[in-house]
Amino acid sequence: MKIIVPVKRVIDYNVKPRVKPDGSGVDLANVKMSMNPFDEIAVEEALRLREKGVATEVIAVSIGPDKAQETLRTALAMGADRAILVVAEDVEPLAVAKILAKVMDEEQPGLVILGKQAIDDDSNQTGQMLAALTGRPQGTFANTVNVSGDEVHVAREVDGGLQTVALKMPAIITTDLRLNEPRYASLPNIMKAKSKPLAQKTPADYGVDVSPRLKTLKVVEPPVRSAGIKVADVDALVAKLKEIGVAA
Amino acid sequence: MNFELAEEHRMLKDLVRKFVDTQLVPLESEVLARDTAGKGSYLTKDEQAKVDAVSKDLGLWGLDAPEEVGGMNLPMVAMVGVGEELGRTATPYTLPPDSPNLRMMMAAADEKQREHYLAPYVRGETISAIGISEPGAGADPQLMKTTAVQDGDDWIINGRKIWITKADEADFTILMAVTDKNANGRNGMSAFLVDRDTPGFNVLRKIPMIDGTATYEIALDDCRVPGWKLLGTRGQGFLPMQVRLGTRRIEMASWSIGMAQRALDMMVEYAPQRVTFGKPLSSRQTVQNWIADAATRIHAMRLMTYDCAWKIDEGRDTRQEISMIKSYCTEAAYDIVDHAMQMFGGMGMTREMPLYLLSNKLRTMRIYDGPSEIHNWVVARDLLGTRE
To answer: How far is CA A21 from the centre of its chain?
Structure first.
């Protein structure tokens, strides 16, 4: 069984994003970029399934700029077997899902494991759209994943606990934070990754129109929180809370 | 011209960064507390074992060792990135085996020495030290008084050595001694591999240093060393020693970049937060100048250090460049850390922040492996033709 793991190149989670002065987006010039952390979890889960003998091949796919090769190389260094880069700038979740659907047609995977969302735009759409487009079952916000026979059981993180769903494979899974702790690519594996295959494609190869359907009107910094005040004792605290209408 | 690191070297640098952030930075408060209590800044045996296990598992041992002895054979440009990341923490740690002695042995060891000393060293099974300086003979090797005299197949070594790191725990010490008194200076010097338990190899005293480390003074009293443990060619010990020193100096330049970067990161984070007289420090021109100056000098340090590393990988003569980066990078990083301490005000004076330890480390780095003045003199004498 093959597993496809889509990975996205995003602004590194340690970087404090700054909005461009014209409000058109986040300034990415000379900013450290890394693999989306939820996608790292997806790669890790796929590798574990391969190590358990459930899967035979892990294919990392990225849809993004040329530089997304670096992200794919990281996935290969973690242990993915091969990679596919579909070169396209500024693609929206629907376009990504359409391309992934075509990749699924071509590769016939048993599972597609995606991050639940990318930490840059926090869309949380691609996995669900991919499931809708392909008519395959989806287990989103995965906390644990178990494959048995032609089914995969996914414990989902929902409000107030876990909900376990059984999906007929091929299925779509999106990862939540607690699914696993991704490994680091060790140096020997970094070296091996150099010679693993990385195929380059374009959206046209899949016949997908990636022109944007959304328009960004304005991007602004979050409002600065005003400083709090110190109160002398509990009475003063209660009085203050009443004053601002939080307590009756 | 391409200034990009190779992809795998960038990934290695990222890996070491993660290793430093997850394994070494969390130990800093322990290290600072121990140092403050006068117990030194070293990792405990347990901490060392734990961190070593992680670095070994990540394949980070023997990075620049040759492949035939189990190393990764990485070029110097890759090692600069590694040193840079290790420099970002005040927690003292080097990835085994320590490069300088490794490079010296690679340059001089014969078949038997490779098997008995180099191979276990690369596997991280042994610890080494180097004995060059003597009381009264530091940067000027002509003053070296320790002698080795042939006696049958053996050598008998007599003399004193000082400022030797790890002399107490090292399985073997590479010891420099004069073997041909009549040859002038550098041509009469040989290197010996001296095991710790060799009779006549006596550790005299431990000398505490201001960065929480220690060095040792040793005495060689009729210390008998078998002939095959002469490292390299008799009387030609100076050149491999220079290889060793060059490796350490480029490593020190790389650490300096990381240390300066840490100080800059701390300044950039703190300046907008701290408000004085109604305005954040980041709005003050002096603070802005410190930050711009730090960023500019770090950029310069990086460029010159990578340039030097690249030239070493190309097999070029880099004596000038080594001296330039050793002096420039340690001095610049010291200034940058000093500005960070100044900006942090009262907190900058504490032993709770890593800045004081970075500062003390850099203070020693401006001296050991050739003080800045000696390196500046090397650069100037080549330009002026004033070599004596």
So the answer is: 28
Cβ atoms of B106 and B275 within 8 Å: the answer is no
- At B241, is the pLDDT very low, low, confident or very high (cuts 50, 70, 90)? confident
Which of A112, A98, A131, A78 is closest to A4 using CA atoms?
A112
Which of A18-22, A242-246, B29-33 has the lowest average pLDDT?
A242-246
Span B100-150, pLDDT tens digits? 899 899 889 999 999 999 999 988 899 999 999 999 888 887 889 999 999
CATH of B239-384, one of 3.30.497.10, 1.10.3720.10, 3.20.20.140, 1.20.140.10: 1.20.140.10
Dist CA B335 CA B341 (whole Å): 10
Q: Which domains does chain A have, with CATH numbers?
A: 2-244 (3.40.50.620)
- Domain range B7-122, CATH class: mainly alpha
Interface of B with A (CB under 8 A): 7-8, 10-12, 15, 18-19, 57-60, 63, 72
Q: What is the ipTM of this complex?
A: 0.85
A9: nearest Cα among A59, A74, A95, A56 = A74
pTM of the model: 0.90
Contact check, Cβ <8 Å, B58/A74: no
Homologous superfamily of domain range B128-231: Butyryl-CoA Dehydrogenase, subunit A, domain 2 (2.40.110.10)
